[in-house]
Structures are given as structure tokens and as C-alpha cells.
Design goal:
The chain is α+β, with helices and mostly antiparallel strands and 451 residues long. Helix content is 34%, strand content 24%. The protein is built from 15 helices and 21 strands. Strand 2, helix 2 and strand 3 form a beta-alpha-beta unit.
Length: 451
Amino acid sequence: MFSKILIANRGEIALRVIRSAKELGLRTVAVYSEPDKDALHTILADEKICIGPGKASESYLNIPNILSAAEITKADAIHPGYGFLAENPRFSEICESSGITFIGPPPSIIQLMGDKNRAIQEMQRVNLPVIPGSNKLVEDLSEAKKIAQKIGYPIILKATAGGGGKGMRIASSARQLEEQFSIAQHEAKAAFGNPSLYMEKFFQNAHHIEVQVIGDKNGNVLAFCERECSIQRRHQKVIEETPSPFMDEKSRTKLMKSVQAAARAINYQSLGTFEFLVDEKKNFYFMEANTRVQVEHPITEIIYGIDLIKEQIQVAAGEQLSFSNNMKWKGHSIECRINAEDYKTFIPSPGKIEFLILPGGEGIRTDSAAYTGWNIPPDYDSLIAKIIARAPTREEAIKKMLTAIEMTTVVGVKTNIPLHLSILSNSDFIKGQYNIQFLDKFIAELKPTKK
């Protein structure tokens, strides 16, 4: 086991890693940018070290500075959290060559699954269904039109190096494809430095379903109950729940077994998530795999009664999985992401939190790095807190979450709390009758409760 872990991240995920590391008896190092000098993770870690100014490219994405911090503090492992360098194979390779353990998959797996086009081809090879699409990078508009004609409209363009909804564009006709192709290329280039795109068939009324996996260095791989992530806006998740109200036991078992077999076939190690589109007939199609811990991992933890981060650290140290295939989940869990943003436009609302009350109580978990008096910097994501509710049934979990959100108070910045209250009170959501079009379709009709 390691003696000291440096967390190459910030915010609530940095605190999440610090907590698990401390429970394992490990010392922790927080790195921070200048705007984050008063951030909570710098206070709660055993050591802290500044790695640069506010711009992420000069701090949280600055590999030399992070490695220097590890060397200065004698950290023998680095946990990347999510975002920033979490899915950067070069960073993983450099850690390895520097004698520092990267707490995540090996570089080869990150590289394979990080290239979405290669990942799709590999999943086809191991017999996991994939979405009909280009099967390769689309070089130009004329080629895109030919592929679209073959698979049928609507189609979706995706950045091969993408994430977070950047470089994604939907086209329902050849004319729309002409308009969206260059826009998607520019977005991909600006966000990832790579303009390459691939194409997929876009399914109407589909569900965004994902499966959490974890693997050790001895070939043991486990898949967990699916997470429903269809409440999203501009490809950004807003609410997640597990298990999915859409899936039945037969389709759930088939999906979990298929993912476990695919992950085992590629010798997957560490935490990861396989993401799918599931059509109205419950046919599932692989979209991508994220080689890191997901923002929404707590809802899996809370129904299984486990600590995925602790397990991820132990696996990185060479230990075998402590979980077994006989694990069973209990109840239902929902996560709401509370962001500092205008709930109508989704425009971030950085600034000082003048007053903050976060919920607690039986069945409620809150993951947050926010506090009264904290300035939310404009340089990073606008997440204030993740509120997680667990109850024996979905109906009870919704009621519990609604009460928790009503008790959440944030003064000083705009938040999406009114939107969450409206969604949780919506009759279609309560009945579990929603899909990936839900939020875009009803956002104008929703009349958020004032908060």
C-alpha cells in the first residue's frame, strides 16, 4: 500500500478521495491553483502545494508542476479524480516512468477507450452491440452525407476525443448536416485540440444507461447495477438514478453480464463506466467508456453499501477485489447535481456564496466542497454539491430527495435548485416515463418553484 497520495484535482472529488485515503490510513497532498488557495481540499489534506494560476492549462493540467509537487512531497501515488488529467494516457505513462502509481487504468486502456472510434471497434470485436455509424473517422462533409444516407437520419456527430457534450451535433436532414458538420469540428478543435469526428445513428426516445465496472490486476472484473442518466441538458447530466425505472430484470441482467464479459476481454483495470443508448425495445448499444471515476458514482455506492474510491486505491496497490459477484443492491438512489448557474440558460453563475445550508439526515448524502463565504471561481465547473437520496423504493427516494432539495439554501449566486424541484415534481418523471429528450422537450414548459 502507498504511504501518501497526491490528488491531482479540486472540489468535491478531491475531498471524496481525501476521505477514502484517510480511512485507509494514508497521508494526502492537495494541489491547488491560486484562486483555490482557500478551497476546502487544501484545508483538509495533510499537505498542500500551489501548482499555478487559475487557468487550468497552467495548473490542474500542468503535468510538470503536478509531478514536481509529487516529488517535493514524496507522494508515491496520484489520484486524478475526474476531468482534467483523469483520462490522459500520457500523464499515466509519465507517472509510471517516474515511479509514481497512477490510480486508474493502465495507459493502454486509457488510450484505447479514450479514442471513441477505436473503442467502438474493440467493443464490436468482443461482441458488445454498438450504435450503427461510421465505424471510422469521418474525413469530410461529402463522406458524412454518404454515411448519413446509409444509416438514415437523424444522426449525431461526435468528437472522437470528446467529453462533456463538446463537439456533439444532431442533424435531421442533409441541410442540417451541412450546417452542423463544420460547427462540430470547430467545437472539437477548440475543446480537445482534435477536430476529428465520427457519426452515429441518433435514436429518438432512447435512454442513456451506464454500467459501473471495476477490475483488479489479477483479471477479476465486476459490473454493477445500471445507472439511468437520461435527465440531461446539452449532453450534460442533471439527475441520475439507480436502478433505472425503464429497465426490467431480464434486460438488466443481460446488460450487466455483457459489460462484465467485454471488460474482462480487454483486461479492464481500476474504475470505469461503460455508457449505452437503450432503445424503446430495451436493445442496448455501446457508446463509449469513461476510464475514471464518474461524478455519479455515489448512487452506486449507496445502494451497495460500498466505497468505490477505497477499492480503487487498493486495486492500484495490487490488492484483489474485495467484492464478489454475489453482491446485491438494496433500495433506490437518486443524485441531483446542484450547480451555480441560471437554470433557464445553464450559464454559470460564479461568485461568493453568502449563505449556505446543505441537507442531511437519514438516507441523505451530500458531497460538496462549498461553504459560506467561499468564492466560486469562474475558471472551472460550477458544481456546488451533489445531493444523494436513498430509500427502499423509488417513490420514497423521490420524496426524500424533494425534501432535501427544498431544504437546500444557497444565497449569493444563481443555482439550478428551482429546476430540480420542478423535475422531481413532474408527473412523467415520478412515473419514470422519461428519456434523453425529456429535459429539452419540457424545459420551456417547466415552471420552476421559486427558491
